[in-house]
Amino acid sequence: MPNKIKKIGVLTSGGDSPGMNAAIRSVVRTCAYHNIECVGIYRGYEGLIEGDFKSMDARSVKGIINKGGTILKSARSKEFRTKEGRQQAFNKLVEAGIEGLVVVGGDGSFTGAMILNKEFDFPVMGIPGTIDNDIVGTTHTLGFDTALNTVVDAIDKIRDTASSHNRLFFIEVMGRDVGHIALNTGIAGGAEEILIPEEDLGLDRLVESLKRSRKSGKTSSIVIVAEGDKIGKNIFELKDYVDENMEGYDVRVSVLGHMQRGGSPSCFDRVLASRMGVKAVESLLEGKSNFMVGLQNNNMELTPLDNAIKGKTKINLELLRVSDIMST
Question: What's the predicted TM-score (pTM) here?
């Protein structure tokens, strides 16, 4: 393996997700394995501009594989969006002797890495870290599996109280403009309806579906709503509409919010993060740059950052059909 790079930096950027710490650990220990120095960059691109760096070795990442969030912190940086800000960031990298950069984050983080590579020919590699699972080039992003388990656990608990009081619960989950979390957790949680941006059920169809469920003998119902769903302006408008057009249900709303981004990463996410970290570092050592590492057919593959950023993930049509059958 060519080994021209002697020092690699790693940062986390954008929204945090379970598995980011496991990815940091993997990057640091892979560097140690190959006798490469590793530098942790705090607070994403903001810390990169300010030179908020810390040397990391194999022992500095002990005990973090099971922790949610990111020990390197994350922050948005308006200054990095400017040419002057990026010049300052590049200068800090050069001053510190950093010769390659691993960025853990989503499409916004990858856009920053790609521009840094384009403007300064600086080697970069991306690791997809977002619970939304909305990055092209990988079947799973870091944190997606953990978020699913967190949501399903919450749905199970809410169903207990829904059944006890003959209630209809609208449960909003994260996902920005995609319905991957909603669709998967809706099926796993036994939801009567799943509302996602990719499929417009419509308010009238929703009410008719709930009425059919009522006639079939269901005394309580769960409806999972992706935050980007377009049926109503928001989940509370959905509640009001159902209240006005249905009798017999005590309608409640539960917005799960940022609890979905926290918690100890699942076994799947820990293993995925470990594999991605190894692939990212070794790809840089092989002279590759401007790629994202991703899981494809259970193998670690590289996707050009530009494709990962501009591509749009597709909803699993089979899961939609399964959802329709299961809600019978």
Answer: 0.94
